[in-house]
Amino acid sequence: MSEDEQYKLTISRSASSGGGANKIKTKVDIPSTLTVNDKEYKLTAIIVHRGETANLGHYYSYVVCNGNWYCCDDEAVSTLKDPPNENNSYKGGEPYVMFYTEVVAEDNEQASKKPKERE
Which of 4, 15, 45, 78 maximizes the CB count within 10 A of its CB? Predict the structure, then answer.
């Protein structure tokens, strides 16, 4: 696989208030694909913040590797049971940063090629 173009999208999850930072907990659906300037990008990683305030909490991530999604939480790595795919968006937790990787024509061609059956 070549070095594909990547997009990183960040959602602002804090707002200043009285000398502190309040956490913005708005739920956001994250699409599994994006189209930017006629290029298609697929979701390949999500960083999530778990915690009641912007100053306290814990970060963990969801990443795709060899077509499988995993939750990486410190030393614990587990398979994601309901991963984002072309039919649904990511709807869990409070995403903070999303990473998208360009889908190149070479990837599309290989994915669409199937072995020919002999007659």
Answer: 45
